[in-house]
Amino acid sequence: MQVSVETTSALERQMTITVPAERIESDVDKRVQQTARTARLDGFRPGKVPLKVVKKRYGAGIRQDVLGEVIQQSFYEAVQQEKIVPAGSPQIEFKNDKDGEDFAFVATFEVYPEVELADFSAAEVEKQTSSVTDADIEQMVDTLRKQQADWTAVERAAQDGDRVNIDFEGFVDGEAFEGGKAEGHDLVLGSGSMIPGFEDGLVGAEVGADVELNVNFPEEYHAEELKGKAAVFKVKVNTVSEPVLPELDKAFFEKFGLEANDVESFQAEVRSNMERELKNALKMKLKDQVFSKLVELNAIEVPSALVDTEIDALRRQAVQQFGGGQDLDPNMLPKEMFEDQAKRRVTVGLLVQEVVKAAEITADEARVRETVEELAETYQEPQQVIDWYYGNEEMLNQVKSLVMEDQVVDHLLSSAKVNEVAVAYEEAIKPAQQNNGAE
């Protein structure tokens, strides 16, 4: 077998592989003999069809099957020989596949980039710290009560927090627009579910009132034709209802799957859940910052094959999240929707691998165990969940990967300049992009 490699770009390689005709013909002959043992043709007994007849009848198909297998085997042997690690599958183009002549093909593929990690001591990272206060717990309990509130109709002007039932129609430049009309629509004032100014304009309105609202669509509104446009909404108020909050009793506690018997134990459970959420939020923000700095300091070109694979994964994930199931083909979602996110994920993945290799990081088994136990503690039978993880190699490896990411973060932070900033609970649990626009 002859192999030659040409570098066509920073990451692309073209490998020409030539396989001796003798190997192809030998493999074809073996496959013809195997086929002859089971071939059934009119005029011949099973297994007695002459090889010449079998080759004439099935030879072309057999040869194509053999060439497919030879391509796989010889490509694998060639990259091993040349010490090349392909990133993704190759594109194959036949160069010569004539009978009796050496078989030659060209494999075009990408390789992983060579990375020389920059000194991370140049990075400056903000590390948020926070804690759950009694006031935070009171606010959370109040939020949970509002979620379970009943509504009672009132004969007074609408206030912030009330629910109004309305009919409305919107106009831009005097013309009604698509999607701007509804009847019998329930709206909680102050919920922020409508465009700015809409809900505020209904505070003070009474049942039966006709209200005209002059508002502006946000510049970043999802409908292109409405972005930044001034609009007039004509609104009819049908009913005004105020919330009636439920009592803090066992029936209320059970709605959240908690076994609390009194307010104090309920608040303790709420605190535990909030502290778990806070810990995870702070950890994810710090990790996002560290990885963003890692990408910023190490500009690398990433293989498009890996980006395309990640785009496909993000498409499938999006379909599952929106309940598309089998009804929506993930490939219908535009590639551009996921391209930046996919490229960043691939970049981070490659750089993290380099850090792992350079620092010789291996998964800390004690941290793996601690992570599994943290995942299990939210279930009724934690030990069963722990046993399940340790009995499922695939799931345990996912946990190990997460732990190794945490270890990479710790390793990088050990050399970076870290500025601790204390923030309130509500600020701490906001997703990173809401705070600083991080990806």
UniProtKB/TrEMBL annotation:
Pfam families found in the cross-reference section: FKBP_C, Trigger_C, Trigger_N
Keyword Chaperone appears in the UniProt entry: yes
InterPro entries in the record: PPIase_dom_sf, PPIase_FKBP_dom, Trig_fac, Trigger_fac_C, Trigger_fac_C_sf, Trigger_fac_ribosome-bd_bac, Trigger_fac_ribosome-bd_sf, Trigger_fact/SurA_dom_sf
PROSITE patterns assigned to the protein according to its UniProt record, in alphabetical order: FKBP_PPIASE (PS50059)
Subcellular location: Cytoplasm
Domain comment as written in the entry: Consists of 3 domains; the N-terminus binds the ribosome, the middle domain has PPIase activity, while the C-terminus has intrinsic chaperone activity on its own.
Similarity field: Belongs to the FKBP-type PPIase family. Tig subfamily.
Protein name as it appears in the record: Trigger factor
Species assigned in the record: Neptunomonas marina
Designated gene of the protein: tig
